[in-house]
């Protein structure tokens, strides 16, 4: 997968390569911007994809898909959120895009190993860090040191790093400066939040829970929530995603 610095750079390059149509997501299909044409999963291929890792929030990740349809003689691009808080309304088509992307990568690389690695991004250009394996050892102390040495921690009020990722579960280490806030959002799966350092306030419309080191909570799917850092804090966010 090619890596560039900005989404706009990727879009400009793809346009030069003939990907001129702007696609948007709809229920279980992709619609062609400017008309009512709907392209269903069997009618398109994912030729390329470019991932941009969120610098301060796992919900900020984005992916650009280069899509072609021989049936409709179209080539275009789709930009969609890639983070753990994806839009449940378009969940099925996102799963289809993900599967087609994996199929494209498998055809190109024919990977011989069952271990999956993170891809290089502008934030972490080195890549090659295992995200999934039959057994995966995660050194939380090393990740805590790494996350505070990165530029995004020095320039933003929070940052995050995904340390485990499969189709059904994700584990993300999140660091927040004192006073930082993750605005209200929902997650398309059951989540747990476990504080490793500091003190955060976890807000829902039902109640507010104060969490400090060695404390954790669980939250069911789709409940709006926000997080506020009362002091510099690091916590683990784990989400169990539906595999249906």
Notes on the structure:
- The chain is α+β, with helices and mostly antiparallel strands and 244 residues long.
- 18% of the residues lie in helices and 41% in strands.
- The protein is built from 4 helices and 17 strands.
- The protein has helices at residues 7-16, 91-109, 140-149, 151-155; strands at residues 21-26, 29-32, 38-39, 45-52, 62-69, 74-81, 116-117, 130-132, 158-165, 169-176, 181-185, 189-197, 199-204, 208-212, 216-219, 225-229, 233-241.
- The strands form 4 sheets. Strands 3-2-1-6-5-4 form a 6-stranded mixed sheet, with helices on both faces. Strands 9-10-17-12-15 form a 5-stranded antiparallel sheet, covered by helices on one side. It has a 4-stranded antiparallel sheet with strand order 11-16-13-14, with no helix packed on it.
- It is elongated and about 55 Å long.
- It starts with 6 loop residues before the first helix and ends with a strand.
């Amino acid at each position: 997968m090619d890596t560039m610095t900005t989404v706009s750079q990727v879009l400009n390059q793809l346009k030069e390569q003939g990907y001129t149509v702007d696609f948007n997501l709809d229920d279980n299909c992709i619609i062609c911007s400017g008309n009512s044409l709907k392209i269903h999963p069997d009618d398109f291929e994912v030729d390329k994809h470019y991932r941009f890792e969120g610098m301060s929030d796992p919900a900020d990740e984005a992916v650009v898909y280069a899509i072609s349809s021989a049936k409709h003689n179209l080539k275009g691009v789709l930009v969609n959120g890639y983070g753990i808080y994806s839009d449940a309304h378009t969940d099925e088509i996102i799963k289809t895009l993900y599967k087609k992307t994996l199929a494209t990568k498998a055809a190109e690389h024919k990977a011989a190993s069952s271990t999956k690695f993170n891809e290089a991004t502008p934030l972490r250009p080195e890549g090659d860090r295992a995200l999934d394996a039959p057994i995966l050892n995660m050194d939380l102390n090393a990740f805590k040191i790494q996350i505070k040495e990165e530029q995004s921690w020095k320039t933003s009020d929070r940052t995050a790093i995904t340390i485990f990722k499969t189709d059904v579960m994700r584990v993300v280490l999140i660091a927040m400066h004192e006073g930082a806030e993750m605005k209200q959002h929902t997650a398309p799966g059951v989540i747990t939040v476990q504080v490793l350092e500091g003190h955060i306030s976890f807000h829902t419309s039902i109640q507010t829970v104060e969490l400090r080191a060695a404390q954790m909570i669980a939250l069911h799917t789709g409940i709006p929530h926000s997080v506020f850092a009362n002091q510099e804090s690091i916590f683990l966010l784990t989400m169990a995603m539906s595999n249906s």
